[in-house]
Amino acid sequence: MTNCPECDAKVEKHGMVLGEVFPCPDCGTELEVLGNAPFVIQPAPKEAEDWGE
Amino acid sequence: MSNGVRLGIFYTIIRPEEKSILAAAEARGVPVVRLDDGEVTFGLDAPADLPDVVLNRSVSHTRSLYAVHCYSAYGVPTVNAPSVVELAGDKVLCSLRLAERRIPTPRTVVALSPEAAMTAIEQIGYPAVLKPAVGSWGRLMAKVDNAEDALQILEHKSALSSPIHSVFYVQEFVPKPDRDLRAFVVGGEVVAAMYRSSTEWRTNAARGASAEAAPHSSELVELALRAAEAVGGGVLAVDLMESPSGLVVHEVNPTPEFKTLAAATGVDIAGRIVDYTVGVARR
């Protein structure tokens, strides 16, 4: 369990892998898993202009 | 089966696609080397302890391009190969190759200045579509309905500082149903296909288009395989539109997302990608 760096909501780790991107359940900010033990998250990288499939 | 192959995955973030690729590798007993595109460095000589093959999943075209060239120089095969990333990742180069191979594709004119872009739009006629040469998810695309729109959009693009916005890729607007088609090619096979439907003219899944499995018609399979082969083959998503005169290929994507396609078709796309990638690893 940790807190969203944007809205401070509690965020639980549910089988997430390192580097995984997921939305904060409260504010929807895209978050990235930086560490699993301890569970560390930060806002995901912002989309750059050469991104895309 | 891993056959002792160590699979490198070069990535930006772990989206559902990368998570399913990691799971597919684990299920096959393939050891994975994670290569974060924000952390890896590349010297001029091959470092020790390289993986046997690198699957590129970076979302950045620039990072993808340099990384696959570096791994290739080190003697490590990449999926996709550098020439494929170069060609398919750039709409201008891709369109040129499709036209060269006589694969039906929308009429396209490229211009390198805002003034020439106005001429290009007039040559294509209204409505026209203005796209960035690199990058996608339907971002920064504009439908140009008349000269007034064209002037405004070109003025906005000129105000953007990146060189990417100094390349004007103008395409005819193809009158089509409210959907397009995506065929997912792995090696020499179309493994899955879907319709992407939207009331908006851009039918990217990233823009919320809905998806359903599409039949693998002979026309779809033939065109998708020809388009994939034209850029060098590998793991590619070929996007097609149903024009009044038949299917046309408008994009070939070298690092495709497939979450929506896998859900719509039930195909284990991640597993197919891992099997293919392990198959091209160095021995």
Task: Please give a structural write-up.
The complex is a heterodimer of chains A (53) and B (283). Chain A is mainly β. Chain A has a single domain, classed as Rubrerythrin, domain 2. In chain A, 0% of the residues lie in helices and 36% in strands. Chain A contains no helices and five strands. In chain A, the strands form two sheets. In chain A, strands 3-4-5 form a three-stranded antiparallel beta sheet, with no helix packed on it. In chain A, strands 1-2 form a two-stranded antiparallel sheet. The termini of chain A are far apart. Chain B is α+β, with helices and mostly antiparallel strands and 283 residues long. Chain B has three domains: 7-87, Rossmann fold, CATH 3.40.50.20; 108-172, ATP-grasp fold, A domain (Dna Ligase, domain 1, 2-Layer Sandwich); 175-271, 2-Layer Sandwich (D-amino Acid Aminotransferase, Chain A, domain 1), CATH 3.30.470. Chain B is built from nine helices and 13 strands. Chain B has helices at 16-27, 61-73, 82-88, 91-100, 114-124, 147-159, 218-230, 259-265, 269-279; strands at 7-11, 32-36, 53-57, 78-79, 108-111, 128-131, 142-144, 168-172, 179-186, 189-197, 210-213, 235-243, 246-253. Chain B has a five-stranded antiparallel beta sheet with strand order 11-10-9-12-13, sandwiched between helices. A four-stranded parallel beta sheet of chain B has the order 2-1-3-4, with helices on both faces. In chain B, strand 3 (53-57), helix 2 and strand 4 form a beta-alpha-beta unit. The mean pLDDT of chain B is 93. Chain A binds chain B through residues 17-21, 32-33, 44-45, 47-53, and chain B through 11-15, 18-19, 22, 34, 36, 38, 59-62, 132, 134-137, 139-140, 162, 164, 206, 237, 253, 255-257.
